[in-house]
Write a structure and sequence with these properties.
It is built from 23 helices and 27 strands. The chain is α+β, with helices and mostly antiparallel strands. A hairpin with an 8-residue loop joins β4 and β5.
């Protein structure tokens, strides 16, 4: 009788080749993907199949590429999956605390004032707290981030929200103009030296963390607000709202294009290639496989696939190529990903440098990151196919791979790779700084790209031919007109009708067409004889004014205005606003435009020029609410307001217009500031004498409260500008732009502290009253 057989084991196959491809030395390079294999001669017992490690392919790929030393491997893997710690930055705001208001020299900005508060009240307190029974909380500045505005908390945001000891910190974060973002989002902006007058394009702007920091740099000086533009592009309109809040400003405009085919925008009506807008900086934070942030995007921990990088490589390369076409000579292009895969990083960089053939080089921005650990770019790597095979060269790949992916996914020869200076790239792994893994490279364009030069040359030749043809036609027309004039009979100019195709203006002419001579003769008998002689002259032909420009038809009501039409200097609604606030004539209102119903937005001259000569692009693909809101209809307030100009100014407008405003300004002190922040409405008689005097000289409606520190020891020690409303008896801080808690912290206290102070003052008054009654 044959022996009874036990349960048969099935051979477990990994994601590699079914045939088990081996290297020449006999080592099976796909064995690691399949996991441990049991011998077929094991005892006849029922064994459960091994559970595959979801990150096995991830581990195999990066081990094969020698990404890190073996001693770092465990630390690296731990940081790839553990929760991300919290980081944030304090946002410099020119509109609430305009630094150009005339006051004490050397006073800090709002962000610097809050920074001092955080150092005194929060840093030492947090260092005494322990979470999860073992982790000591640490709040420290990012030394490489400008002006100490970037900070790092060594625990995740979720832990910060749930621990009572961190309540003060979370309240501070939630009430201030602070932006919570990962550290990797702060690095790219530090690598670029963006100035207020620059033209910047962010080709893949969503979710807007990098763009928000660029926008802050461009808007940091209100007195350099005339020029410059920040174009925020993203393919999907649904993502617009993600970055609009942090990137608002007069220089910001959003659009929706495929970055690979971003169009040329023109600065003149010729729309020639030489007249296109060229950018000082272009940012390409491209779509990637994101395995560097799998500690945040936890779905990747169970679904990492090598094909993601392979399929994205060509798109990333195309975006970079288009960026280099758009940037000006000596301009910079930033390339960044949140991937650790060299196919998306070094492979793209080397492919672009090879294609540009000396017109582009890598800029060395490493000195900007002092105190931040990073690694140089790789010069050689291996590729993992969709099936999990490790490939060292394009020739090793199968026909299907070669027909789908370009050769640039593999590294070039080592001598060529060394010539590209890949050490200037910035590669960061999660365990280096307890952050995400990411990659950055900055390109500088030294000369125009060869294919762009050819295109410019071709266009120039066509333009010269066109001018020659136009000159030839013009000469022929002049000759024909001269011949016709010689043979034609003279026309009576007085009978020539005036064309009615366009409005004309006649010059004022004074001439006589008849002269009458009257002669009186008296004889000796005193008889007078009158003789009249009349002579008639022909009237001269009417003369037209050659400099006359027909007036434009009156604009429609605000709700029906063209959202892309900018105001004229003498627009009636603008003149009403100008008179109400006594805005100086030197401020140019022609960059204002209506957007929506009774909302005025302001942008720069650069944006106005782009709208003028690229209107079709703006209609189809650009957001209509570009720039920043300056004025809007007076909102509901809990008291009646009889204003000759029922509009409200925004804090953003006040920050820019302050030097030009001559009316509706009210100077307040610290007590006035706290009173306005605490109460919804305030009696004017309860304010300081100076504030009451200033309000008396204003009209009802929008009012502009200005706080200025008197000396270097004042609290708050920064300028504060607030928009508000008032009537004869009451006033209030703007109902739509209130930041009460922020104002209390700037004044060195919490809202609860102010409530306690009011209670104490009230009790003191009652006790004084009782004491007076007892005495009497």
């Amino acid at each position: 009788m044959p022996p009874k057989k036990g349960p048969q084991r099935k051979k477990i196959q990994g994601p590699g080749n079914k045939a088990g491809v081996k290297a020449k030395d006999g080592y099976d390079k796909t064995a690691a993907l399949r996991g441990p294999m049991r011998s077929l001669e094991e005892p006849d017992v029922e064994v459960k199949p091994d559970i595959m490690d979801p990150l096995q392919a991830f581990k195999t790929f990066y081990k094969e590429n020698n990404l890190i030393e073996e001693i770092e491997w465990k630390n690296f893997l731990d940081h790839c999956i553990k929760p991300m710690p919290m980081s944030f930055r304090l946002v410099e705001s020119y509109h609430l605390c305009p630094s150009h208001i005339d006051t004490v020299p050397g006073i800090p900005s709002r962000a610097q004032t809050l920074l001092q508060f955080m150092k005194k009240k929060l840093v030492e307190t947090l260092c005494k707290i322990t979470v999860n029974a073992s982790t000591n909380v640490s709040l420290s500045p990012l030394t490489w981030y400008p002006n100490e505005l970037g900070w790092f908390l060594n625990i995740p945001r979720a832990d910060a929200d749930k621990y009572l000891g961190l309540k003060k910190f979370t309240e501070f974060i939630n009430s201030q103009p602070t932006q919570c973002l990962e550290t990797w989002s702060m690095v790219p902006s530090v690598l670029l030296d963006v100035q207020p007058q620059h033209c910047v394009l962010d080709m893949c702007a969503a979710p807007g963390f990098i763009a928000s920091q660029i926008a802050q740099r461009m808007h940091r000086d209100p007195q350099q607000a005339a020029n410059g533009v920040l174009i925020l592009n993203d393919l999907y309109k649904a993502k617009d709202g993600l970055h609009l809040h942090w990137t608002q400003g007069i220089k910001a405009v959003s659009c929706n294009y495929d970055a690979k085919t971003f169009p040329d925008l023109y600065l003149t009506d010729k729309k020639s290639f030489s007249d296109r807008l060229q950018y000082d900086h272009v940012i390409c934070d491209v779509k990637c496989s994101m395995d560097g942030i799998m500690r945040k995007n936890t779905g990747l921990q169970d679904n990492w696939k090598p094909k993601s990088a392979l399929y994205l490589h060509s798109d990333q390369k195309a975006i970079m190529k288009r960026a280099l076409e758009l940037v000006k000579v000596k301009g910079y292009v930033l390339y960044s990903t949140t991937s650790m895969n060299p196919i998306e990083n070094e492979a793209v960089v080397m492919a672009i440098l090879e294609e540009c053939a000396g017109s582009v080089v890598l800029a060395d921005c490493r000195p900007r990151l002092q105190g931040f650990k990073f690694r140089p770019g790789l010069t050689t790597w291996k590729v993992m196919s969709e099936e999990g095979l490790i490939l060292e060269s394009f020739e090793q790949a199968g026909v299907g791979f070669q027909g789908t992916f370009p050769t640039s996914v593999f590294p070039p020869p080592i001598k060529e790779a060394m010539a590209y200076h890949m050490e200037r790239c910035i590669r960061v792994l999660p365990h280096d700084n307890n952050t995400a893994g990411f990659f950055c490279a900055v390109f500088v364009k030294t000369t125009e790209l060869s294919w762009i030069q050819a295109k410019v040359k071709e266009e120039k030749l066509k333009e010269e031919e066109k001018l020659k043809e136009e000159k030839k036609l013009k000469d022929e027309k002049q000759n024909e007109e001269a011949k016709a004039k010689e043979t034609a009979e003279p026309e009576n100019q007085t009978d020539k009708p005036v064309s009615k195709t366009a409005p004309k203006k006649l010059l004022c002419q004074i001439s006589c067409d008849q002269i009458e001579w009257i002669t009186e003769t008296t004889d000796q008998s005193l008889r007078t004889t009158v003789k009249t002689v009349t002579k008639t002259f022909p009237r001269p032909p009417p003369m037209l004014d050659p400099n006359y420009v027909a007036p434009k038809p009156p604009q429609l009501l605000a709700s029906f205005r063209d959202p892309l039409a900018f105001l004229e200097k003498y627009d009636e609604q603008w003149l009403t606003i100008k008179e109400f606030f006594k805005i100086n004539d030197t401020w140019d209102p022609t960059c204002l435009k209506f957007s929506g119903e009774n909302e005025l937005y302001h942008s720069t001259k650069t944006i106005k020029t782009l709208v003028q000569y690229n209107k079709n692009n703006f209609i189809k693909n650009f957001g209509k609410q570009f720039g920043v809101k300056f004025f809007y209809e007076l909102p509901y307030v809990p008291f009646e307001v009889k204003s000759p100009c029922p509009v409200m100014m925004t804090n953003e407008a006040l920050g820019l217009l302050y030097p030009f405003i001559g009316r509706q300004l009210v100077n307040i002190d610290r007590d006035d500031l706290l009173r306005l922040a605490y109460y919804e409405t305030v009696k004017i008689t309860s304010l300081s004498t100076q504030a009451q005097t200033d309000i008396a000289a204003t009209d009802q409606g929008c009012i502009l409260f200005i706080y200025k520190p008197k000396n270097i020891h004042s609290v708050p020690l920064c300028n504060i500008a607030l928009c508000g409303v008032h009537n004869e008896e009451l006033c209030m801080y703007s109902p739509l732009q209130r930041e009460e808690r922020a104002l209390f912290l700037l004044a060195g206290m919490d809202r609860e502290d102010y409530e306690r102070r009011l209670t104490e003052e009230k009790l003191a008054k009652i006790m004084a009253k009782d004491a007076a009654m007892d005495t009497s």
